[in-house]
Structures are given as structure tokens and as C-alpha cells.
Amino acid sequence: MSVAAPTRVASLRGAKLVCIFFLVYFVADTGLNLFAFSAGWTILWPLNGVTIALLICRPKSEWPAMLLGIGLGMGLGEFLDANALGSVIWQRIFSLIEVALSAWFLPKFTVLEDWLRKPQIFVRFVCALVVGPLVSGVMAAVYFHLTTHQAFLSALDDWATADSLGIAAIMPLALSFRSPEMRGLFRRKTAWRTLMVLGVAFASAAIVFSVSQYPLLFLLYPTLLLVDSMLGFSGSALAVAVISFISVYLTTHAMGPFGRWPAGLPVTRDVAFQLFLGFHLVALFPASIMILERRRMAAELLDSNAQLLLLASLDGLTGIANRRALDERFSQEWSRAIRVGTPLALVMIDIDHFKQFNDIYGHHAGDRCLQAVATALQAKTQRGQDHLSRFGGEEFALLLPHTDLQGAIHIAENLRLAVLDLAIPHRAGADGQVTISLGCAALKPVNGEEESRLLEAADAALYQAKSAGRNRVHGADPDHRIVPMRA
């Protein structure tokens, strides 16, 4: 491949990005300018928030092509809306400077939850809201003051404050659309809850910004916090964007507490409304992060507790269940057997001459022997309902729900053969290798009967197996009557 080939591919990719963003932003700008409350765009301009979200989702190497396409698309839309070409060009330059500056302050976006946990994310978010709009707003205010003689502060407010509010209201929503959390809100099982909570929030906002004779503005922030606590950051971002549009629409149509603003006040209606809405939007962001962090910490705590419970139920040496876990499982299966009326069996297992094994080969070899035996026993415990545990020392126990005595003896014999197959050398053992003795018992428990009855019967069978010469299986009924051994 020639050196020019990668350059040609990059150029084609850049041209494609320019075309895509040109078309998208031309349609978006034209639609916004024709929208029913276009007068409200001097209060809140939403498109730059979307632009910044798109920029931080893409590599910076693609920013020039994206910005060129965005500038051309919005420029054409503004020009067709009867704006002078020179004014359009300058405004597009100011706007591109703004979104590039704001995006530069923010970390690259990958996953919403990770992005919100970036270091100093709130400070960087505030910088994106302030620095970009302020720099471009000063440039635009100077330009409009010189060309149209508009008051500097009025032009600055129309540009910078509206863009800043638009970024605060729309950028989190644009990022949330890439989050699984947003898709989860509208799954079949959760959509009704999401729609109900959002419906309450939108209705509350409509009441707050349509009623002027009663002071209801204090209801807005609790409403936003309620949505955030019930639907998470993505639901909150959606609610914020829609409520912002509702409030702008009602205010520009002379409704609500800001709609009929008295003349002669030092602060104009738009400025007062922007201050109120801006405070809520900026204050909600850290609250959302705190709620998200609290949920994450609660989930991590649950995971940690589950891991601790798991560790507490495992034998540290062999990795199988320990005596504590056996006691809990024994109680559960005993109650279930009484309720269902099925037999419950217990197999007690003891490694033969294990003390001599430790004396001859050392405790490290003894530990390895215990691990090997536990692994062999576990491999033969094939039913998910069966429960193998280390009872203590060189003893193991196997709990067998829905199993009668003959079934337990059959399983125990397989366990005995599995340990023989290990062929672990043992000078003091039968045939010069490690063996096990097993005692089995089974019964159908009834109300009022003690669990210890089954354990005592299995212990008695194990004692008989060891007394009869070890390396064998004995069974016992609940009255400790020994079933003929199987060796």
C-alpha cells in the first residue's frame, strides 16, 4: 500500500463527517428557527449542548471535520432564515469557538457512570458552562454592539446565558442516550413506572410555570430530585430537558410567575428566569452524582457482603463448604424434607490413619492430601442439590436430599473408589495408600424430630466402618441398626 493511501482514506472519512454533520445540523437549525417558541431561544439555546456531547464522544482528531460540517449546516440554516451573510459567518465562528472550548474542559465520554465519576467532573462541567459561552458571548456582544448598536450586556445575555443554559439542560440528556440506563427506563417492565414519574414531573412543571397568583416555584427542585431518585441520572436528564422547554414556552407566552414581569425592574424577565432555571440545572448535577455514587456504593456493599458470606461459608484449605455452611444447609434441607415428605441422607467420611500420615509425611503433605481428597469427593458430587463440606479435621460430610439409605450407600461407594483412584502413598494405610471410611444414614424426618438423630446414626455407621477394618462403607438406620457393609 502506498503512503498516499492512508491519507486518502482519512480525507474521505473527513469529507464524510463534514457531509453528515452538515445535513444533520442544517435540518436541526432550520427546525429550531421555525419552532413555535423561537423567541425563547434567547433564553435557552439547546443545539450547542448536543454539539458538545457529540464532540466528547469522538476522538479529537475528528473535531475539525465535525466542526466544519456543523458550522456550514447551521450557517446555511441561518442564512436561509434571512440573516446577512457576514453576520452568519461571524456568529458561526463565535459558536464553534464556544463548543470547542467547552468540550476541551470535559473528559472524553465512554460510559455514563464512569464519566460521571471522573476526577473533578462537577468543576469541569461548570467550566464548560461558563468559559465557552462567556468567551464567545463577549465576542458576540462586541460584534452586535458595533454592528447593530445593541447594548453590550443585553447581547451578552442573549448569547452567553442562553447557550450556557442550553448546555446544562441538553448535554446530559444527549450523553444519557448512549447509556444502558436510558434504554432500561423504557423496557416493557419499567416503562409504565418511568412514564408515570415523568408524567407527574411534567404536570408539576406545567402547573409551576402557568400559575402566577400563587408562589409555586419552590416545587421545581423537589420535583427534579424526586425524578432523579426514582429514575436515576438518565431519567433526570430527560426530565430536565423537557421541563426546560415547558418553562420557556409558558414564560414566553406570558404565563406563570415570570410571564407577566413588571416593567421598570432592574432585572429583566429573561435574566430573572435564566437565573432561576440556571440555579436549578447546575445544582441538580452534583445532587445527581451524589445519588448515583450512593447507589454504586450500596451495590458494592451488597457485593462485598455477599463475598464475605461466601468466604465465611468456605473451608480455607480445601475450598469446599465448611461446618458452618453445613449446619445452615442441614437445617434448610431438614425443614424441606418435613414439608415435602421426602427422605434425607447423610454420609460421614473420614480419612483413614490420617494422624499417622501427618506424622510420617508432615503437615504440608497432609494439607495436600486433604485438598486432593476434597477435590475427588467434589468431582463425584454431581447433583446440584447435594452438599459436600469439611466437617472438621480429616472428616467430611455429604448431605443428600431426596435420597434413601440404599442410594446413599451407592453414592458413598463411588466416593470410596474415587479416593482409591488417587493412589496417594501412605505407608500406614491399607495397601500402602490413602483410603477413606464412610458411614451412611437416611430417614424421613417428621415434625418434632431432632436433626441430631440423623447425624448420630451416620456417626454410628462411620464408627462401625472404621471398627470393621476401614476402607469401607457402612449404613445405619435411624435406630443405629447397621446395614451390611459394602467394601
UniProtKB/TrEMBL annotation:
It is an enzyme of class 2 (transferase). Its main location: membrane. The chain crosses the membrane at residues 63-82, 121-144, 159-178, 190-211, 231-250, 271-292. InterPro entries: Diguanylate_Cyclase, GGDEF_dom, MASE1, Nucleotide_cyclase, Rev_trsase/Diguanyl_cyclase. Keywords: Cell membrane, Membrane, Transmembrane, Transmembrane helix. GO terms for molecular function: diguanylate cyclase activity. Coiled coil: none annotated. It catalyses: 2 GTP = 3',3'-c-di-GMP + 2 diphosphate. It is found in: Cell membrane. Its EC number is 2.7.7.65. It is a multi-pass membrane protein. GO terms for biological process: cell adhesion involved in single-species biofilm formation; negative regulation of bacterial-type flagellum-dependent cell motility. Residues 342-478 form the GGDEF domain. SMART domains: GGDEF (SM00267). GO terms for cellular component: plasma membrane. NCBIfam families: GGDEF (TIGR00254). This is diguanylate cyclase.
